[in-house]
Amino acid sequence: MVSSIDDLNVTLGIEEEYFLVDAKTRQLVLDPDPGILEYCKNNRGAHNFVPELLRSQIEANSCVCEKFSQVRPSITEMRGTIQEAAQKYGANIFAASLHPTSSWNEQLITKGERYERLTSALQHSSRQLIVGGMHIHAGFDDENRRIWVMTSLRRYMPILLALSTSSPLSEGKLTGFKSFRLNMIGNLPRTGIPLAMASMLQFERLLAEYKQMQFIDDASEIWWDIRPSHSYPTIELRICDVCPKIDDAMCIIALFTCLIRALIRLHEKGALPPEPRLEIINANKWLAQRYGVFALMGDTRDGGMVDFADAVERVIVMVLKEAQALGCEEEIHHAHNILRNGSSADRQIDHFSLRKLEGDSIEEALKSTVDLIVNESLEGVG
Fold first, then answer.
1. What is the domain range of residue 224?
2. 319 with 260: CB under 8 angstroms?
3. Residue 109 reports pLDDT greater than 50
4. Is residue 224 situated within a structural domain?
C-alpha cells in the first residue's frame, strides 16, 4: 500500500463499444465484412479490438495508460483505426449507446460458444440488447483499497452517467429518457449499483456463492455498474454511455480518476462522509437516466434536492487539487460545457426536433441525427 495519496499512481484503460453504420443508408451494418475487424487487429498498435455480442459492433480496448495524458491519444487512435477499416467497406464508426432506428429483430449474434450460451440463458433480454457502453478501468494500490473506493464512488455515479448520456432514441422514437440504454441493461441479472463492500474478501465470498449455486461461471458475468475487473487489477466503471465527442468522454474519465484520489485523501484524514442508502443512490440513478443534465437529484450531503449543475460544481471543487496534480484541469472544467450545451442525448433530441420543424420527414430527421453522431464521433480523429 502506498504511504500517501501523493505517491499514488492511477493507471487507466478505456473500453468503448462502437456500432458500424452504412454510409449510404445510415442503418447498422448487420453483417460486416470480416475484413473490418481483421484490419483493426492487424493495425491495432498498442490497443486491442474484439467482436461484441452483435455483429454490428466492435469493442476497442486501449493500452494501459500510465499517465492521464496518454488517454486522449489512445481513444483517438482506436476510433481512427476502426474508421479507416470501416471506410474501406462503405461504413462509418458510430460512438453512441443506441442507434436511433435499429430494431432488435434484425440483429445477428456473433458466432461463438460464449455468445450462444448467453443468448440461450438470457433469451429476449439479450436479443434486444442493441447497446454500447464506455467502460473505464482504474488500477491503483491493493485490492482492499480498490473495493472500498468502489463503494465510496457509488454516490457519484449518477452524476457521471448524466454527463455521458447518449441514448434518447430507440426504434425511431424519442424514449423520454436520456439514457434508455440503462433501461435495457436493467433487464439482465446481476446489474445495477452494487451493495456496499469494504474488502475483497466480501466480494470473493459473494462470488463463491454465485459459483456454488451455478449462477455464473466467473466474475465476468457480474455486470454491475461498477465492479472489480475479472481480468485486471482494476475497478471498472460501467455505468456510462458512449460519448460521441471525445472531449465529453475525457471529462468523465478525468472526474472518475480525480474522484478516486480525492476519496483516498479524505479517507487518510478520516473525513469520508457516511455512505448513502443504496435506495437513494438508485433513485438518483433513475433521475440521471430520465433527465440527464437537467435532473434535480437527491442531495446525499445535506438532504433535500439539489440542482444537477450545483452537484457537478461540488464535485469539481472537491477534485480540483487532484486535477491540478494530474494535469487534467481543462478536462474537469469541460463539465461546464456539457451543462451549458447538453450531453449527446440533448444534442440528438434538439437536432431531431429541429429537422422535423424545418420540414424533414421523420425518416430524414433520423438519418440526419445519425450523421450528427457520426460527425461528432470523428471530431479530432485524424
1. 5-377
2. no
3. yes
4. yes
